Structures are given as C-alpha cells and as structure tokens.
Amino acid sequence: MISPPLAALAMGVATRSKSGSLLVAAVLLAVVVAVPAEAARIKDIADVEGVRTNQLSGYGVVVGLEGTGDGQQSLFTVQSILSMLRRRGVTISVDPRQIRVKNAAAVVVTATLPPFAHSGNRIDVQLSSIGDAKSLRGGTLVSTPLLGADQLVYAVAQGAVSLGGGFSAQAAGASATSGHPTVGVVTGGAIVEREVPVTLGADGIVRLSLHEADVTTATRVATAVNASLGDGAAQAVDPATIEVHLLDHERAMTLLPAIESLEVAPDRRAKVIVNERTGTVIMGEEVHIAPVAIAHGSLQIQVKTDLGVSQPAPFSNGQTVVVPDSTINVEEGKAQRLALLRGAVNLGQLVGGLNALGVTPQDLIAVLQAIKAAGALDAELELM
Fold first, then answer.
1. In whole angstroms, how far apart are CA 374 and each of 239, 289, 300, 324, 377?
2. Is residue 234 in some structural domain?
3. Is the dihedral of CA 134, 135, 140, 144 positive or negative?
4. Which is nearest to 212 in space by CA: 380, 367, 11, 74?
C-alpha cells in the first residue's frame, strides 16, 4: 500500500537585539510520521467525462443603493440605465454627462451552471462592481441575462443583493470598511432557461477522467473495475482516461454508482514543495537522495551509502543478498556533530538530522536546491 506524503514544516522566527544584531529566536521543524495510506473512492479521484459545470456571465445594473453607487465618471452606468428606460418607453433627451445616478451601479454577474441542471432550477450568482461604487448594500439586481461561451442565454438573474457582512461607512475626515462591500451575491437569484444536454454512454462507453494523470493509478482503476464488473469491462487508454464498456442491456446510470464506490490506492509522485517567504518545506516520504556531499557556508553535509553482504547460515537454504548501509555526517563550524542513520536514507531522515543541529529554514532550502542541482534528489522540487 502506498504511504502518504511525509510532511516536514520549517519555520524561522528572527528577533533583533538591542545592539542591532539579528538573533534567531526559534527554529521549528516537525516531521510527521507516515501512516499507511487508505484507498480512495474512484468518485473522489476521477470524473465522468462529459459531466461538467459551465461558466456563465453577464452585465447588469444594481439599483436602490443609498447614494453609494457609481459616480458621474462611470458613463457606462448612465448609458445602461438610459437604454433600459428606452426599452420601457421612457425617452430622455438630456446629455448623459448631466445625469447623476448615485443609487445605481454597474456590475458583472457570474454564475456556475451545474451539470444536469434543468429549466426552472435556481442557481446562485455573484456580483462584482466595475465602476467606482462605494457599496452594493441594499441594492437590487435588475433582470440580467447570463450567457455561456457560445453567447447563448442559459439563465436570467434578478433579486436582492447580499454582502455577507461587508460594509463601508464614511464621515467627515474618516472612513471605515469591512469585507468587500463592492462584491455581493444573490442566493438562488438566477433561473435556468436553457439546459445543457449530457448523454452518458452514447457510444456504449463511459469514460472516467482522473484528476491527476498517472499511469499506475489509471491501471489500478481499470483493474478494480474489471474485478467488480468482469474481465474486459474497463481498460486504461492513457494515463488520465479509463474506458468502461457497457453491454447492450446496461445503462450508464445503473453502473456508475457501483463504479464510483470502488476504492483504489492512488499512486503519488515524489515531490518537495518549498516556500521561501514563509520558510515552509513539505515533502513526501517517497523522496530519497543519492549519495552526495554538500558544503553550505559553515555547514557541511555528507551522505554515503556502503553496500554490505548478508550471508545466510550454513544449510539454511537462504540467499546471499546485498544490504545498503547509509550514514549521514553533518559538520557545522569548528565543532563537529555526527548524526548516524543506518539503512536506506530518505529526505525525511536528512531533515531530522539537520533539525537536531538547529539549521535555519533558509539553510535547509538552500541545501535542498543544491541537492536537486547535483542530480541527487529523486523528486520534483517546486518553489512557491
């Protein structure tokens, strides 16, 4: 069974003394002990191809504000209101620059259309001011069509705006703002007008798409499906796609619940994530290092692997095997401190030895980068 990532967090806190010298107040490095990984449901690591959400957006106007709407410089808000009034038979011949609409604000309306949404269903919408409005509190969104990527209308939004606790207040020479008063939501404010057709297994095949492409994981998913439905029912066509073949009398909706509930142990790549701003280092237990020697400032690290031979006792029918014996030698300054680790050395053990010496996070990050540059780090190093 695959073990989960072994997390190692490094954090340095520095304080400045009265003489101006920088002293390291605390260095914390915790290595979380790995435990056997539990299998995950196929439902949690893969999606059914074709079952997806769709992004909708539109341009609308929020009215009913208490003098916190767009200013005179936002001409598009005035033009939008004039256009709305003309459609309702109200014609204004005044120059738009002379009209002030402090109680209205132009907004961009966005929503996510879930799969299998039917006409008449309600979905939430988010509003974001695009002018110089101070707040959308107390406003009402006027009927706004929401379009998809194909420029077709899939929903229409309208309703009272909620800020979720954000506010903005001003007085003479002072102002106070909490949250984001220029961003709001209308819960259930959009009604679905057009459905997105989804046909499962139209060609007799249901395709599963992994969230993270991996050859081993795809093979394990296909094996688990075959063990449940029978040999030949599924096959991994690429590292991210598994095809499940349906029989003539089978329907996708009948098989999917059984497939999604199957458990598979996903395989994970060896990766080290480094955040230089916070001094955080996160690594997986699968990360290993090859024999390498590093000198970083006054810090010297040497990793060495010796191959020994294990000889079985006479007449025991055993086999002679090669046993690696690894050691880590760490030297800092003039005083040498030795940390000895026997057996295979992984990066977690190396970090544990560095932690015993009180190595700062910056030194640890530099050491990891040097090991990667030397080609001795058997993992992907990702810098944040």
1. 30, 10, 15, 21, 8
2. yes
3. positive
4. 380
Secondary structure (DSSP) of 16-85:
E-TTS-EEEEEEEEEEPPP-PPPPEEHHHHEEETT---EEEEEEEEEE--SS-S--TT-HHHHHHHHHHH
On whether both 58 and 183 belong to a single domain, the answer is: yes
d(CA 129, CA 184): 9
Amino acid, single-letter form, for residue 162 = S
User: Would you say 343 and 324 are in contact if contact means Cβ atoms under 8 Å apart?
Assistant: yes
Task: Please give the Cα distance from 107 to 136 (Å, whole number).
Answer: 10
Domain boundary among 173, 192, 211: 192
- How far is Cα 181 from Cα 71, in angstroms, rounded to an integer? 16
- The amino acid at residue 54 is N
pTM: 0.63
User: What distance in Å separates the CA atoms of residue 207 and residue 223, rounded to the nearest whole number?
Assistant: 15
Closest CA to 99 of 124, 80, 122: 80
CATH number, domain containing residue 228: 3.30.1360
pLDDT tens digits, 9-67:
233 323 323 323 222 222 223 333 333 456 899 999 999 988 889 999 999 999 999 98
